[in-house]
Specification:
By secondary structure, the chain is α/β, with parallel strands linked by helices. It has three domains: 2-154, no CATH class; 177-391, Mur-like, catalytic domain (UDP-N-acetylmuramoyl-L-alanine:D-glutamate ligase, 3-Layer(aba) Sandwich); 400-525, Protein-Tyrosine Phosphatase, Chain A (Alpha-Beta Complex), CATH 3.90.190.20. The chain has helices at 2-27, 35-42, 44-48, 66-90, 101-123, 130-142, 144-154, 156-176, 191-202, 218-228, 247-255, 270-273, 276-288, 303-306, 362-377, 382-391, 418-430, 449-463, 476-484, 501-508, and strands at residues 181-186, 208-210, 235-239, 259-262, 295-299, 315-320, 328-336, 339-346, 353-357, 400-404, 407-412, 434-439, 466-470, 492-495, 513-518. Strands 2-3-1-4-5-6-7-8-9 form a nine-stranded mixed β-sheet, with helices on both faces. Strands 10-11-15-12-13-14 form a six-stranded mixed β-sheet, with helices on both faces. Helix 18 (449-463) links the parallel strand 12 and strand 13. Helix 1 (2-27) runs parallel beside helix 4 and helix 5 packs across helix 7. It is globular. 41% of the residues are buried.
Length: 528
């Protein structure tokens, strides 16, 4: 009985630690491509140097009575449980654990991994082995991250069965919708923005469904089809993301797009793709999967799209700003802090058609042009296209202008990249007031990460009056870029928690202040 009572604080501690480990597993795509394992190994100090490593003191229990061992074990976990509680109250959590069906299945497996040893001990309990029981259980708690990883590996066959079941269900549903056409959107940057813009424009005439939020993985598309796609939808816009060659093709095999938009081929996820060429090949899997009567929309200002030898004879429509030979060209662009106006010229038509949008930044003109090009191919007339562009709403966390008290926030917190971050700074430069940048920098850029973040720092130096860097280690390249441009140190503020940035803005603001929030890294990159 005393043995069981001594385990109560232990199990409460294990539950608390497992919740955090599950959160990290979830943010690392359930260890896809060993992401969770890599995270554990890259955070060895934070994950393994803590008070719970002193479980080795139980070795001294070899020389004490059982009654003292019970107390020693229970008190030890009560103390570290209290310390963990205090620490977690100070820790920022941006993406809390989502208790999905998959997480529930993992919780069952994790519980078994901890309960089986305990039940074995209870069945064959021997007081002389008590210290070894405690050492085994304490070791399991200490290596909790690896217990969660083991549970994830054990569940792989189950998850494959679940995935195949819902995939087959989605396939049957799509086959039954004979009048539905699918539009795929991919690219290194701008996928979600393009998806939302296209949705708002096409909805002028059609009943359009788009994948929610950033549902751009096989599971995301399957959930979108099974749970949200309606029999009355005319068009289904499927955002498609990828980390390596073959993943876009997998998504195309699932939803079979007739139309495809490739936004931009860049360096996003360079680390997982392995090379720029692989990114180019991977992104073009969408266009090369289109049927002969399909239509691909490509960017004539993107050298990596123009230079690609396309292995498909479907119709291609080129859009551009700098390349005037494109099929759909934007001219006479007027950018301001209130929005954007521009003219569009269609090949074979000398008329200039004026468009107005509330969206900020030159890169959004590319996104709008792609939607205009496809919309015209789908039968929308000029007035419908103009109305659609005018009604496009600001996209959440993508150069979204909002208020924080009397401070103007340009929220570009979602998944920053080298192209988008530079354009976000151009938008900030248009603003009529004091300019502040808050950023933790850019990630998943492979061997180019330091250089690209340093360039980002140089660009910031040309625009910002104050800079707030989130994470000392992560933002070192940005700091070096600022120093390379002789930026004054007194205007650089380094913090480890983005929540500290908001009260800091209040001390740095003027009568009219604009703050660019450029990227917001998930919890797996916390330096606290």
């Amino acid at each position: 009985m005393y043995f069981c009572l001594s385990l109560i604080p232990f199990f409460i501690y294990v539950i608390s630690k497992s919740k955090k480990s599950l959160q990290m597993l979830q943010q690392n795509w359930y260890n896809l491509d060993q992401r969770y394992l890599k995270w554990i190994l890259s955070n060895k100090y934070n994950e393994f140097v803590g008070i719970d490593m002193f479980f080795v003191i139980f070795i001294v229990a070899l020389f004490v009575e059982s009654s003292v061992m019970y107390i020693l074990f229970g008190v030890f976990y009560l103390v570290i449980l209290y310390l963990r509680y205090r620490s977690s109250n100070k820790e920022q959590v941006k993406l809390p654990l989502k208790v999905t069906a998959r997480v529930k299945r993992l919780i069952i497996t994790i519980s078994l991994l901890y309960l089986v040893p305990v039940l074995t001990m209870l069945v064959s309990y021997d007081e002389h082995l008590l210290v070894y029981y405690y050492l085994l259980l304490a070791t399991l708690a200490y290596v909790n991250n690896f217990v969660i990883l083991t549970a994830s590996v054990i569940n792989i066959p189950v998850e494959k069965m679940v995935f195949n079941h819902f995939r087959n269900q989605a396939t049957r549903k799509l086959k039954s919708m004979n009048s539905l056409d699918v539009i795929g959107i991919t690219g290194s940057y701008g996928k979600t923005s393009s998806k939302n813009i296209l949705h708002d424009i096409l909805n002028v005439r059609y009943n359009v469904f788009k994948t929610p939020k950033n549902f751009n993985t096989p599971i995301g598309l399957i959930i979108s089809v099974n749970n949200y796609l309606d029999k009355f939808n005319d068009l289904f816009i499927a955002e498609m993301g990828a980390f390596k060659i073959g993943e876009i093709q997998e998504l195309c095999d699932l939803v079979h797009p007739k139309y495809g938009i490739l936004t931009k081929v860049g360096t996003a996820h360079l680390e997982s793709f392995g090379s720029q060429e692989n990114i180019q090949i991977g992104k073009f899997e969408l266009i090369e999967s289109l049927p002969k009567d399909g239509i691909g929309i490509l960017n004539a200002d993107d050298p990596l799209q123009v230079s690609y030898q396309l292995k498909n004879d479907c119709k291609i429509v080129w859009i551009g700003i700098d390349n005037e030979d494109a099929d759909v060209v934007a001219t006479d662009i007027k950018l301001s802090y209130k929005g954007t106006t521009f003219n569009v010229i269609f090949k074979g038509d000398d008329t200039k058609y004026e468009f107005t949008t509330r969206l900020l930044g030159k890169h959004n003109i590319y996104n709008i042009l792609q939607s205009i090009a496809l919309g015209k191919e789908l039968g929308l007339n000029i007035k419908e296209l103009q109305a659609g562009v005018n009604r496009v709403n600001a996209i959440e966390h993508r150069l979204e202008l909002k208020k924080y008290g009397d401070i103007n926030i340009i929220d570009d917190a979602y998944n920053s990249n080298p192209v988008g971050s530079k354009m976000a700074l151009e938008v900030l430069g248009l603003m009529p007031g004091k300019k502040i940048v808050v950023t933790p920098g850019m990630i998943e850029l492979g061997s180019e990460q330091y250089e690209l973040n340093m360039k980002f720092g140089e660009y910031i130096a040309d625009v910002a009056d104050e800079v707030i860097l989130v994470g000392k280690e992560q933002t070192k390249p940005i700091y070096d870029g600022l120093m390379h441009k002789d930026y004054k140190k007194k205007h650089i503020h380094v913090i480890n928690d983005v929540k500290e940035a908001f009260p800091m803005m209040q001390t740095l603001k003027d009568e009219n202040t604009y703050v660019l929030l450029e990227n917001d890294l998930p919890d797996i990159f916390n330096e606290k």
